[in-house]
Every structure is written in structure tokens, then in C-alpha cells.
């Protein structure tokens, strides 16, 4: 990696306590299985100059462990929290579809115009995440950074890098403990980001 390139690894948290549901900003910690998933993916790798994590515990707790083990500076950044799902938070997909079988399909196809009641608008989420992303690129230009966050955050960043429309973000599948790598050549208006791999291995 040369000095004009920035390398970012995006990592989703592992399984939280309580299993699969629309968790959003509920601060459930990692389950034992979730810890195992994340540890098996990292598995001793330590190439990073810096670790940045969502402030929610399912991301920040693992970031602190890697930071402590390998003496890598870590910071928690609230801007990288998951999108707020409003009234959907805490519900499973099955529970949401009990009264309306199409409710999730409408959201996945057009999240801008099918915001859950009381939820963070997707356009507001976009502004929050992309501002945090651009700040990381400027502050850590030329470095190799690990960002530990959430499926929605990773979708938003990948959508931005690939210049996809907002309504296409749910076409990107993000598994638990999945890692995607982005290489950015240059900076600011001259920056060229490229997706190196998605849901790959270190």
C-alpha cells in the first residue's frame, strides 16, 4: 500500500444476545456465538493502524478486545451506529409480517418512502454515515483502518462507494461477522474508492 492509498476493512458485528431481529439502536451485547464468530474471522490478524467502532456494545466490546490484544488505538464513534428502526426495534421479521406480509418487501425495495413508524429517515441515516465515512478518510489518509459496525452502516457505505441509488441498498447482503475491504486512491474530490472484496476473508 502506497502513501496515497487508504485501506478500509468494514466488519459487521457477530450475533447479539436475543438472536435475529430488527434491533436497530437497542444495545444488546454479543452472545457467546457472536464473540466466537468475530474472533474466528479476525483469528490473529492485526494489520490495522486504527480501529473505529460503533458505540453500541455489540461492536465496541469486540473492538476493545482487539485493541487491547494487539496494542492498536481504538475509538468508538456514535455516528457509526445502526439506523434507528423506530417502532420495529425489538421485533422479528415474522412478527412484523403477521398483519402485513408485504411490509418488509416494501421497505427493502424502497426504504426512502417506506420508513417504519418513528424510525430514522434513510436520507438522515445517509447523511450521518457518509459524513462519518468522509471524516475517517480525511483523518486517516494513507492508513489501514478497521471499522466495526452494522449491516445497515455497511450497506450505506458500500452503496456510496459503488454509486448505487438509495433504494438499491438492500440488494447488498451483509452476513454477521462479514468483512468487506475498500481501497481508496487519492483524497477528497480526487479520491477513487474501489471495492476489493465483499464478505471475504482476511
Written description of the protein model:
The chain is of the alpha/beta class and 202 residues long. It has one domain: 3-Layer(aba) Sandwich (Rossmann fold). It is 32% helix and 18% strand. It is built from 6 helices and 6 strands; from the N terminus they run βαβαβαααβαββ. It has a 6-stranded mixed beta sheet with strand order 3-2-4-1-5-6, with helices on both faces. Helix 5 packs across helix 6. The longest helix is centred in the middle third of the chain and has 18 residues. The radius of gyration is 17 Å and the shape is globular. The two termini are 15 Å apart. The mean pLDDT is 96.
SSE inventory with pairings:
Layout: E1 5-12, H1 32-42, E2 50-54, H2 57-70, E3 74-77, H3 93-96, H4 103-109, H5 122-139, E4 144-149, H6 151-161, E5 179-185, E6 192-197
Parallel strand pairs: 1-4, 2-3, 2-4
Antiparallel strand pairs: 1-5, 5-6
Helix pairs in contact: 5-6
